[in-house]
Amino acid sequence: MSDLLPTTSIGTHQVRLDGPDKVRGRAPYAYEHPLDDPLYLYPLQAEIARGRAAHIDTSAAEAADGVVHVLTHTNAPDLEDTEDGELAILRSAEIGFRGQYLGAVIATTPEQARYAAGLVDIGYEQEEHDVELREDHPASREPESGSGDVFAGDFDAAFAEAAVSIDERYSTPMEHNNPMEPHTTVARWDGSELTLWTSTQGAHPARSTLAPILGLDPDRIRIISPHVGGGFGSKGVPHADMMLAALAAIAAPGRPVKYAVSRQQMFSITGYRAPTLQHIRLGARADGTLTAFAYDAVSLSSQTKEFPEEATKPGRMMYAGDNRRLTQRVVPLDVPVPSWMRAPGEAPGMVGLEIAMDELAVAAGLDPIELRVRNEPETDPDTGLPFNRRRLVDCLREGAKRFGWEERNPQPRTRRENGWLIGMGVAASTYPAGRQPGSVARIRRMPAGYEVAIGAADLGTGTWTALSQVAADALDVPIGQVELRIGDTALPNATVAGGSTGLVSWSAAVFAATEAFRAEHGTDPAVGAEAQGEAEANPAAEKFALHSFGAHFAEVRIHPATGEIRLGRMFGMFSAGRIVNPSTARSQFIGGMTMGVGMALHEKGELDPRFGHVVNHDLAEYHVPVNADIARIEAEWLDEEDPHAGPLGARGIGEIGIVGAAAAIANAAFNATGVRIRDLPIFGDAFLPT
User: Fold this and answer.
1) What pLDDT sits at residue 266?
2) Domain annotation for the chain: domains and CATH numbers
3) How far apart are CA 535 and CA 539, in angstroms?
C-alpha cells in the first residue's frame, strides 16, 4: 500500500456527496443545463433496412411554423474523416440499416420539430436485406480486431478419449442498454468553438473521437458532462446522435441545439449487445479434470461498422486444460451498429461456459463447486503468467457457506414448497483488472482545503464520492476539505469510465499529482499553489495476469403447472481488491447482478427479419427487472488489498457483478426442474410439457 494513504476515509461508508443535489434537482444532466434561446432537433430516420433514399423533399417541413433548418445529406456540413461508418453520417443517400439517420429538423420547440419531421417526404429504393444471425452464415469471418483464435495441443484426440464429455450449443439474444437518462446532447457552435453538453462516459475520449472527424483542433471542442444518468457501456463512445447534434449546431450557428434521443430511437442508434451463438465442447477425466476444451462463438455485427462481441474471452483464462480450441467469428449484417454493454464479451461468454460446466458436473457426478475447484489453473492458461491474486475458490467456498449451499439437493426436481419447485445454482465470475494510463489530475491549494480537478465521469457509480475519498487520504485531510471537479474537457485529461478501469486509473493520477504537489510545495503550501501528475501504465500488467473473480449463487422457484419462474434469492461473493466505499461498491455489485437477472429472465430484442428492426423498442415491451422481480439480492466481498493493482490496492467493480449471474439462474432452474436451458432469456414455456 502506498505511503500516501493514511486510510482515514478509504474503506469507510460515505454518503454520496452528489446525492442531495440529485434528489433536489440541482445536479444538471445534459438536457438541463440552462442555455438561452435554444433550438430543438428531431431526426429523420430510414424506414428500410437496406437501399437508398431516392428523394427527400423537405419543402413542406421548411415552410412549417418554427422550423429554422432541415438538415439532410444534400446540405450537411462536410466531414474531414469518414472512415468511421457509424459517425460519418449524412454523407450520401445510401442506407445501411433501418433507423439510420437521414437528416434532422431543427425548430424553436420540440413539438414543432417533431411535427415538421413528419412532413418530410422520403422516397426509397429498397434492396434485399439480411439481418438474421446463423452459425453457418457464408459471410462469417474472423474479426478485424480482437484477441485472435487459440489452438493448443490436440483437442480432437483429447476430446475423443475423454471419459466424460459434453457437446452443446448455447445462445444469448440481442440486449439493449437502457439507462434512465437517454442519450442527450446540447450543441452550440459560435463560429470557432463547438461546445457539447452531453451524456458521456468520457468527455476527453469523446472529444478525441469527434475532433478529427469534424476537422477541428481538439482545443476547439469543449465537452461538459458533470452528471450522467447511467450508461452501462452505451455512453462509452460517441454514437451518431452526438454527431447529428454537432452537425445541426454547425448548420444553425449561434443558438444551442438540444437533442434527447427518444427511448425508441435508442434501440437503433446508441448501440446494443449483439446476440451470440456458442458451441462448447468439454472433455474430462472421470474425476472431472478437463482434458479438452473447445469454444467456438459467432456474434452479429453491422455492415456499417464492425464490433465483435468476444464471447470466448473468459474461456481463454478461466479453467485449466492443455488441449484447447477457441475461435471467434462475426457476421456483418444490415443491422444497427452494436457496441459496448456492461462486461462486453465476458457477460455473454460466461453464460455458455458456466452452464456447460454445470452440465459437466452432472455428467461427472460432482458438485458444481468441486468441479470448478478441480479445474483451477496454476497460471493463466492464455498468457502463461501467474495471476495477481486468483481467489475464485475462496469466493466459491465462502459464498457457499453464506448462501446455505449445503441445503441444495443435487437431484433435480426433488424440492417443493407450496406447490413450487425450488432449485439452487452456482456460477463463477471474472473480469480483467485493467488500469489505463494517461489520466492527469491537478491539485490546487484553496483557502479551506484543496481543489482536485480531473475530467473523470460519474454515471451514478459514485465517482464524486469515491474519488473524493481517495484524494482526501492522499492529501491527508478530511473529505470535507476536498473540492472535486470532474466531467469537463476544460479540466485535465481523463480516460473513459469503462472496462472497470475508471476509479483505479483516475486514482493513479491523483496519487501522482499529490506526489508532485508535495515535492514542489512541501507540507505547508501557500494558497494558490498547484501541481499536476499523470497516471502511468501499471508495470504489473507485464508480469501478472490481472483479473478479479467472484461466485454467484441463485435460488429460483418454478411453478410446474404454469412454468412461471421467480427469483427467490441471489448472493454474490467477490474478490476485487480493496473496496474504497462499501456503500457505493455494494450498489455496483448489486446493480450488475440485477442486470444479470434481466439477462436471464427478461431481456431480448425481438428483431423482425422482414423489416430489420427491433419491434419491442420501448420499456413497455422490452422488459427489464423491476422491484417485484428482485426478492432478495445480496453482495459481499473478501477483505483484501491487491498490491499488483497499484497504490490504491483496488480493482474495478463496475462489471464483474453481471458476469456469470445469468448462468447461476439457469443452473438453478435445472436443479429445480431437470430442464436444461441453453438459450436466454428463460421463459416459462420451457418448463411445460410438450
Assistant:
1) 97
2) 19-27+435-537 (3.30.365.10), 33-127+181-267 (3.30.365.10), 150-174+273-434+543-687 (3.30.365.10)
3) 12
- Nearest alpha carbon to residue 642 among 513, 502, 515, 538: 538
d(CA 494, CA 394): 34
Are the beta carbons of 325 and 151 closer than 8 angstroms?
yes
Taking residues 513-528, what's their average pLDDT?
96
Supply the pLDDT for residue 631.
Answer: 86
Ranges of beta strands (E only) in 75-173 are 94-95, 101-107, 121-126, 150-152, 164-172
pTM (predicted TM-score):
0.96
Task: State which amino acid sits at residue 133.
Answer: L
What residues have CB less than 8 Å from 493, skipping those under 6 apart? Answer: 204, 438, 439, 440, 455
Q: Which helix (H) or strand (E) holds 39?
A: strand 39-45
**C-beta of residue 665 within 8 angstroms of C-beta of residue 594:** no
165 forms bridges with which residues in the sheet? 283
Helix (H) or strand (E) holding 346: helix 346-364
Give tens-digit pLDDT for 605-636. 999 999 999 999 999 999 999 999 998 999 99
User: Do the Cβ atoms of 226 and 27 come closer than 8 Å?
Assistant: yes
Amino acid identity of 289?
T
Q: How many Å is the Cα radius of gyration of the chain? A: 26
Task: Name the pLDDT band for 5 (thresholds 50, 70, 90).
Answer: low
Query: Which cell is 449 given?
Result: 482545503
Per-residue DSSP letter, 382: T
Look at the alpha carbons of 63, 65, 67, 68 in this order and tell me if their dihedral is positive or negative: positive
pLDDT tens digits, one per residue of 177-193: 999 999 999 999 999 99
Does residue 590 contact residue 657 with C-beta atoms inside 8 Å?
A: yes
Catalytic positions are 655
Q: Would you put residue 311 in left (φ > 0), alpha (ψ -120 to 50) or beta?
A: alpha
What number is the average pLDDT over the span 238-260?
97
650: which DSSP letter? B
83-128 pLDDT tens trace: 999 999 999 999 999 999 999 999 999 999 999 999 999 999 999 9
d(CA 237, CA 246): 15
